């Protein structure tokens, strides 16, 4: 097990270097620089601009800047945000719980709806139910996030007035941030009204963000389930006189879950990418919105640090999924 | 009362317009403690017959029978739930591929205990004790260690022993073994057959042994049913059928046994079992039958009784292997 983890960590190293290099290059490829963005329309005296750029080290050759940056990163220093002069890591960590809260709820929604939908479609394959589930999931998968978000806002927030349009909680409430998760913090404070407000704010973004993973999980569960149902051991389970529920939930589902868990892990990348759009549309104060804002301010350290951290999280989740995989599948557990 | 009484069992697949009869009016009869061999090439409907009996034919398959009685009880009339109480408990089945028959995610012990839990209840401790006893009975060394083994840690022979333990867990009155040795090594095959024969004798189970190995039938069975393209073509006591087959198909099967070969070359019946789209008119065997006449190509023969034996042929063979007319 230890050897397995070490091997996996070894593979992560080149990925890390690649991610930092690409993030670094892309950010510097965008026209403009942080100072121009700060100065705005009025512009800045070219001499002053050059002096400041020199002070910040942005006049050095790109490769030198990159090496300096990597050196600092390896020492655990992601630099200061140009905009706020706060450490990038600190900013990220304050905003990250909001993104996790949103992503977890989105994933929870996707799994809770996607798994049963896929299972039902597999068990009742060829029926109207199967076709509708598959049709809907294809639609959900193909729906651009920003468009889907706007449609839902129009219906539920504007027409029906059921949910707020944006934000994380109503401005009426102030909750002491203990965990950074609004749902938990409001409960810890014992403030039910605040909890409801936070929940109302969370519903739409979570649905929007969870739609694509939901579609992928539903389709994957269906195909995996249909494959497993044809296996001999399912027929043997039925020949033992077990109830259909037991055959499906105990024998078919567990085997069918093996590939689905992998897919759920892979979806975390999609989820964090989707979070950028979703957070921007719903003005959700998370990492995604912060990244977008940092890009438009050409806040180089913030963007680079943000991408690096997000990449690290995706890799970590995938590592976790591999471990989880072994827990579900005894064949893998024993192979180590 | 007979243990198993099947009359005119048919299983159809395909659409209503183009139905395909995988099993065509099969009648089977089995007494308590009797061992019946069912033989035939692949595609002759042996497995489908047993799956129909177990109630494991799924939509779009259709099962019909004039009578399907187990221990005097009309199985087809039973509601789903009552039928499930029967299968796995009183009628159990062992399948062809032992490695695929066990769920890879659960331990051997869990899967045997599951059968016990479904039919007998009892405490966990009792089930565990009974499971260990079963593992011992099917000849698995060190049952306590094997109890918590996963299927992928077992060999094919061991897996088949576990599957058999699972099948006999509730002391079934009828055990159907569907080619239980096909996927195993020759040396293991004999062991598994010995085990089945021993368990059959000890528990006085009815045993239906589906196989395409005639040597196995000769060794273990009292009666033999030969199937071809979903129909029974011959039935009788093993000794009589082996001594003087009435049906040309049975004769061909027997002639292709290595120990019966004359000369250097092994006899092989040309052609294959007809499928859904190439059913011949008349007798289903006529394109492959060495004795087929014009009559055989026109009219399908009925299954008729010839002193204690049944045969589906217009011109059954005599003791010398020549068609009688």
From TrEMBL, chain A:
One of its GO terms (molecular function) is dipeptide transmembrane transporter activity. It is a multi-pass membrane protein. SUPFAM superfamilies: MetI-like. It is found in: Cell membrane. This is Dipeptide transport system permease protein. Belongs to the binding-protein-dependent transport system permease family. OppBC subfamily. Residues 96-325 form the ABC transmembrane type-1 domain. The keyword Transmembrane helix applies. It comes from the Bacteria. The keyword Ligase does not apply. Keywords: Cell membrane, Membrane, Transmembrane, Transmembrane helix, Transport. Gene3D superfamilies: MetI-like (1.10.3720.10). GO terms for cellular component: plasma membrane. Pfam families: BPD_transp_1, BPD_transp_1_N.
UniProtKB/TrEMBL annotation, chain B:
Keywords: ATP-binding, Cell membrane, Membrane, Nucleotide-binding, Transport. Its main location: membrane. InterPro entries: AAA+_ATPase, ABC_Ni/Peptide_Import, ABC_transporter-like_ATP-bd, ABC_transporter-like_CS, Oligopep_ABC_C, P-loop_NTPase. GO terms for cellular component: plasma membrane. It is a peripheral membrane protein. Its EC number is 7.4.2.9. It catalyses: a dipeptide(out) + ATP + H2O = a dipeptide(in) + ADP + phosphate + H(+). It is an enzyme of class 7 (translocase). It is found in: Cell inner membrane. Residues 4-254 form the ABC transporter domain. SUPFAM superfamilies: P-loop containing nucleoside triphosphate hydrolases. SMART domains: AAA. The keyword Chloroplast does not apply. PROSITE patterns: ABC_TRANSPORTER_1 (PS00211), ABC_TRANSPORTER_2 (PS50893). CDD domains: ABC_NikE_OppD_transporters. Belongs to the ABC transporter superfamily. This is ABC-type dipeptide transporter. It comes from Plasticicumulans acidivorans.
């Amino acid at each position: 097990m230890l050897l397995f983890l070490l091997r996996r960590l070894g593979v992560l190293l080149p990925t890390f270097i690649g991610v930092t290099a690409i993030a670094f290059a892309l950010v510097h490829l965008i026209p403009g620089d942080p100072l121009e963005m700060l100065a705005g329309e009025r512009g800045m005296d070219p001499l002053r601009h050059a002096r400041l750029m020199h002070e910040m080290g942005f006049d050095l050759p790109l490769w030198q800047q990159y090496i300096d940056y990597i050196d600092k990163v390896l020492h655990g220093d992601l630099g200061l945000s140009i905009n706020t002069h706060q450490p990038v890591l600190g900013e990220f960590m304050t905003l990250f719980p909001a993104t996790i809260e949103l992503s977890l709820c989105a994933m929870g929604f996707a799994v809770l709806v996607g798994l049963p939908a896929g299972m039902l479609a597999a068990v009742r394959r060829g029926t109207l139910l199967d076709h509708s589930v598959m049709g809907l999931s294809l639609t959900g998968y193909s729906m651009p996030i920003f468009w889907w978000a706007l449609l839902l806002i129009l219906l539920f927030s504007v027409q029906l007035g059921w949910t707020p349009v944006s934000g994380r909680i109503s401005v009426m409430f102030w909750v002491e941030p203990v965990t950074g998760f609004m749902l938990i913090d409001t409960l810890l404070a014992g403030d039910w009204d605040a909890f409801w407000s936070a929940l109302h704010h969370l519903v739409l973004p979570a649905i929007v963000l969870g739609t694509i993973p939901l579609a992928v999980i539903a389709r994957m569960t269906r195909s995996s389930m249909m494959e497993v149902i044809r296996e001999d051991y399912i027929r043997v389970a039925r020949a033992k006189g077990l109830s259909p529920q037991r055959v499906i939930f105990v024998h078919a589902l567990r085997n069918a879950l093996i590939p689905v868990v992998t897919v759920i892990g892979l979806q975390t990348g999609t989820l964090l990418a989707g979070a950028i759009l979703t957070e921007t549309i719903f003005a959700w104060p998370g990492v995604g919105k912060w990244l977008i804002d940092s890009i438009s301010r050409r806040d180089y350290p913030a963007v680079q640090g943000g991408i690096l951290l997000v990449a690290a999280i995706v890799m970590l989740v995938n590592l976790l999924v591999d471990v989880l995989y072994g827990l579900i599948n005894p064949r893998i557990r024993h192979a180590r | 009362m007979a243990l198993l009484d099947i009359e005119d069992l048919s299983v159809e697949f395909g659409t209503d317009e183009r139905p395909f009869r995988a099993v065509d009016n099969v009648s089977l009869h089995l007494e308590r403690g009797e061992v019946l061999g069912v033989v035939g090439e692949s595609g002759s409907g042996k497995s489908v017959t047993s799956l129909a009996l177990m109630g494991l034919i799924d939509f779009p398959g259709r099962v019909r029978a004039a009578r399907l009685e187990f221990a005097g009880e009309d199985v087809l009339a039973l509601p789903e739930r009552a039928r499930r109480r029967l299968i796995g408990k009183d009628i159990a089945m062992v399948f062809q591929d032992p490695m695929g028959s066990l769920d890879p995610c659960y331990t051997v012990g869990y899967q045997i205990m599951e059968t016990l839990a479904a039919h007998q209840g009892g405490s966990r401790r009792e089930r565990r004790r009974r499971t260990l006893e079963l593992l011992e009975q099917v000849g698995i060394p060190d049952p306590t260690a094997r109890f918590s083994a996963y299927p992928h840690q077992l060999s094919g022979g061991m897996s088949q022993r576990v599957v058999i333990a699972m099948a006999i867990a509730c002391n079934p009155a009828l055990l159907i073994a569907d080619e239980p040795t096909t996927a195993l090594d020759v040396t293991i095959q004999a062991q598994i057959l010995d085990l089945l024969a021993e368990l059959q004798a000890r528990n006085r189970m009815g045993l239906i042994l589906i196989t395409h190995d005639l040597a196995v039938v000769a060794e273990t069975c009292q009666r033999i049913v030969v199937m071809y393209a979903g129909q029974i073509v011959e039935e009788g006591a093993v000794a009589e059928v082996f001594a003087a087959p009435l049906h040309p198909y049975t004769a061909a099967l027997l002639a292709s046994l290595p120990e019966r070969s004359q000369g250097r070359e092994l006899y092989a019946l040309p052609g294959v079992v007809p499928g859904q789209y190439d059913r011949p008119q008349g007798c289903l065997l006529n394109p492959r039958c060495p004795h087929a006449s014009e009559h055989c190509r026109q009219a399908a023969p009925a299954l008729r009784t010839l002193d204690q034996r049944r045969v589906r042929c217009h011109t059954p063979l005599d003791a010398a292997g020549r068609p009688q007319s």
